[in-house]
Amino acid sequence: MKVVCVGGGPATLYFSILLKLQAPSHDITVFERNPAGSTYGWGVTYWPDMLERLRHHDPHSASAISDGSLRWRDGVAHVGERTTTHEGDEGFAIGRHKLLDILARRAESLGVDIEYGREIPDRDQLPEADLIVAGDGANSTMRDRHAGHFGTHTTLGRNPYLWLGTTKVFRSFTFAFVQTAHGWIWCYAYGYSGEHSTCVVECSGATWRGLELDRLPQPKALRRLEGIFASLLDGHSLIGRSDLGGPAPWQTFRTLTNRTWSHGNLVLLGDAAHTTHYSIGAGTTLAMQDAMVLAGSLAEAKTIQPALSHYERTRKSELLSVQSAARHSAQWYENLPRYIQLPPAHMFALLGQRHSPLLPHIPPQLYYRIDQAADQLQSLRRLKQWLGPRLARTLQHRNSARG
Q1: Residue 98, strand partner residues
Q2: Stretch 118-139: mean pLDDT, rounded?
Q3: C-beta atoms surrounding 259 within 10 Å
Q4: pTM for the full model?
């Protein structure tokens, strides 16, 4: 089979690896618009169950990813001057550049051809292929050429956010909430190497404008944020994109879905097919899981169209709970004033429960007490798991009817 992949991200590289492991005779080319070794992004996160899946599919690359990752085992939240710690939150992070290098080297060792510096705006500019994989991100040009067919839909979040790096190495997954004269601003930070961490800053639109972050050039914006998070950073600097001379690249998150994921022999992969809010830390994991299912579907079905149908059905089903969790997580942060005045330990507990569809509909302190009781009684925990989604749907329908 001749396969062409557009976009050299983790999903397409991992897909090409899995396909080559199935059948070395496959002819696979990956087109990446950026030069080799050039990528924007700091660290990406993944969890222990994902590492086990990577080991199952390709032990060679899994070992290299594990060796190149930094592990944390607890979470820390700073709320103003107060701090609380939650032990047992194990996770991993790896630099995006390192991850791409590991996957590219593995793919090339198996015979995959990776062509860097190749912008592919339309499928007509691709060589003839049995399968075309569009893994060119949330702004996929391959998908947008057929947006009507794919039924692409985007929903914008409310809070501006900024993806940064820092030279402070965080050994725990760390949250910091700081109150300013213009409202709360917060960040999530996690180390991904022995030298650097990712630091994602978020706030409401009103706070963003009040702090003039909407108009400051990037160097001044970084200095202002370093002042706000001074106690967290311990004198370390924040790092933005070096290729930008204008304002810092604040965004509001775009949740993207598609009605269908394939068009003839063109199939969507990763962020081109779906996005999930960054606050659940699953974007790269979900994209690589797409690759696992697509490769497995092709091996099982033997022909293209049944394989693409199976891939789409399977992944859409698997993503339902994750997308719900991401939606509620984003809404938790958008409604931060509802939770921020709780005692730090209580707020941190509800931060961990932000994926719950029930939480927005129950007073926070009451939810906290129910959650603590559920941890002690298995029957109550099962009731909560059963009742939560049903009650949430009922309340959402009632609120929609009133609107």
Answers
A1: none
A2: 91
A3: 10
A4: 0.91
